[in-house]
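User: Here's a structure from my thesis project, written as structure tokens. My advisor, Dr. K., wants to see whether a designed sequence matches the one we expressed. Can you design one independently, without my sequence as a hint?
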């Protein structure tokens, strides 16, 4: 294993540098962990607060951030932490971020531009621009909130950049207008990664956003349907970038639910829409207050799943 992500109301490193406590509690179902497997020898260690593990194919690295509840301190610490993460992946020979998960303490606290999510975006953007990331090269990402002290950032890095994919139904997040904050969010809607015979589609957090506007405030069922339509459009767009013309299949989904009491409704809708896909349901705050549900995950673009060398699965604890 390159990384093992545990769910629960605790955020911080484990004993092993590959073990990540991400701060998001699981809702219902058998308790699982998210395991990223690889082939070959794995090396791991800890440097400058970065907990890393690498194989021939990929590198995972995690870091935790404490800011004492101050949004500007969060911005500055996020910027510093991302710079350190970017330095580490460069030094270890996997210079390109393919996919990033950001699980932020009290993501919705603070008003207007001082909302913690918006300051997180500002800090992330300065680090990315220092390292010459641009609209054409941003990784796939998710940004969710929890109630723990430490913000968790973990990421998957590759020797080569993945191919960013945008959603034709949505304005690219990096083009969101000023009303959503001082710095637009630096991520691609999805990133397509070559893994030998297969390609992995890393799907960023997808919610009920069309154009740049949130849809169906207060209506969970309608938000779910809009989220599914966004996922369909993203899958459809991603097939344009595959040589085989093979349609991608969702392989593992993480479903983030703002209100615990919505779990059963969300579970039923997701299992009706994706009956053959492993899904993990997590209690999380979503970066826009009006959004009740968000889905991210991994898709596989081939029928070669059994031979896949690298990927993630949900494993019973
Ligand atoms: C949206 O569509 C929802 O800031 O990294 C989704 C995925 C969202 C990633 C991020 C934010 C991020 O705008 C929000």
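Assistant: Designed independently from the structure alone:
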């Amino acid at each position: 294993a390159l990384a093992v992500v545990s769910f629960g109301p605790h955020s911080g490193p484990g004993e092993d540098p590959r073990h990540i406590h991400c701060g998001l509690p699981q809702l219902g179902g058998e308790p699982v962990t998210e395991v990223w497997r690889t082939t070959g020898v794995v090396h791991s260690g800890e440097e400058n607060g970065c907990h890393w593990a690498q194989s021939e194919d990929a590198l995972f690295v995690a870091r935790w951030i404490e800011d004492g509840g101050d949004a500007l301190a969060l911005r500055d610490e996020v910027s510093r932490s991302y710079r350190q993460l970017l330095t580490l992946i460069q030094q270890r020979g996997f210079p390109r971020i393919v996919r990033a998960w950001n699980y932020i303490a009290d993501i919705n606290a603070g008003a207007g531009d001082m909302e913690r999510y918006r300051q997180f975006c500002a800090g992330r953007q300065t680090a990315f621009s220092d390292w010459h990331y641009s609209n054409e090269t941003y990784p796939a990402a998710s940004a969710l909130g929890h109630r723990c002290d430490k913000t968790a950032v973990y990421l998957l890095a590759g020797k080569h950049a993945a191919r960013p994919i945008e959603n034709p139904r949505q304005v690219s997040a990096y083009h969101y207008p000023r009303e959503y904050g001082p710095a637009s969010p630096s991520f691609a809607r999805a990133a397509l990664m070559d893994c030998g015979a297969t390609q992995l589609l890393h799907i960023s957090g997808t919610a009920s956003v069309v154009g740049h506007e949130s849809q169906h405030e207060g209506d969970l069922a309608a938000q779910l349907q809009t989220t599914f339509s966004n996922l369909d459009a993203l899958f459809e767009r991603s097939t344009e970038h595959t040589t085989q013309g093979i349609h991608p299949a969702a392989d593992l989904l993480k479903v983030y639910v703002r209100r615990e009491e919505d779990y059963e409704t969300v579970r039923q809708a997701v299992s009706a829409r994706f009956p053959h896909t492993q899904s993990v349901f997590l209690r999380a705050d979503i970066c826009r207050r009006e959004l009740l549900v968000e889905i991210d995950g991994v898709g596989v673009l081939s029928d070669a799943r059994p031979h896949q060398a690298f990927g993630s699965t949900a494993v019973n604890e």
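When you compare it with your expressed construct, this may help: The CA atoms of residues 33 and 251 lie 15 Å apart.
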